Amino acid sequence: MLLSRTATMAKTIWFLLVTLLFLFASAAAADTQIKVTNNPADKLVAELNNNRTAHKASALYDNPGLACLALQYIKAYEGDCKAVGGPNGKKPADSQFAETFAPNCGIQASTLSQITGRLLGCQSEYLHASEAFSQTLIRNSKSLDILYSKNHTEVGAAVSGTDGGSPYFWCVLFSSGKPNSTFVFEGGVPKLSKPGCFSGANDECSGAHDWSQPSLVWSFGATALIALGYVLGL
Ligand SMILES: *[C@@H]1O[C@H](CO)[C@@H](O)[C@H](O)[C@H]1NC(C)=O
Ligand SMILES: *[C@@H]1O[C@H](CO)[C@@H](O)[C@H](O)[C@H]1NC(C)=O
Ligand SMILES: *[C@@H]1O[C@H](CO)[C@@H](O)[C@H](O)[C@H]1NC(C)=O
């Protein structure tokens, strides 16, 4: 009796393992096919464009060069959250774009274009893109005006980038430049700079923590746990 029960259980476990392996493999295959970027900066741009189109403004082109500049913009704060907004708010000088941000990104200086708006936020805990958008970046009617402005044609977003941990900075830069011919990388290839993530480069990137990156491993682990619970419950 006990023996046959053990045998049934072993069979069940074997069956579950095979099923899991199959699921895991097909999930991995789907992942490469769909090519969803697991990048919080891309998610922020998607959120922002959804919000703009719902407001009858145009969706903006996600320019990786502009987004790389947004990450440099964050780095200029050297992790000083208090320097963002408020009475002691500071912002990098406009000249920094040509002098340091563009060279650090490998962007051709001649392709820099006008910045028509910026949204910047910082907080000590990590938020997901949609929360960062509604709670940190869009706080008042002034930021809504910037969001909905008809002057923008393109956008670039970046998250964090000081040491990869807290505090978390989010930056969105808007421009009125021609999407394809502005903020162009030398050689045409985005120069990725870690830590931090920026949008538009088709880059798998986890904004802040390594924990958010292996989402596949996570879902696999969760499935395994559920399966384990199921087996034990027999
Ligand atoms: C757009 O974002 C603002 C600020 O978060 C929010 O109040 C508004 O409901 C959003 N609109 C849509 C259509 O999602
Ligand atoms: C759009 O651009 C015009 C001309 O540069 C400027 O006067 C206006 O304030 C801008 N609008 C917004 C919402 O930034
Ligand atoms: C702009 O970029 C897109 C995507 O890379 C490309 O398909 C299109 O041909 C480009 N347009 C121009 C005018 O260069």
UniProtKB/TrEMBL annotation:
The UniProt record lists the keyword Signal: yes
Endpoints of the signal sequence: 1-29
Record's keyword terms, sorted: Signal
Protein name: Ferredoxin-like protein
Lineage, top ranks: Eukaryota, Viridiplantae, Streptophyta, Embryophyta, Tracheophyta
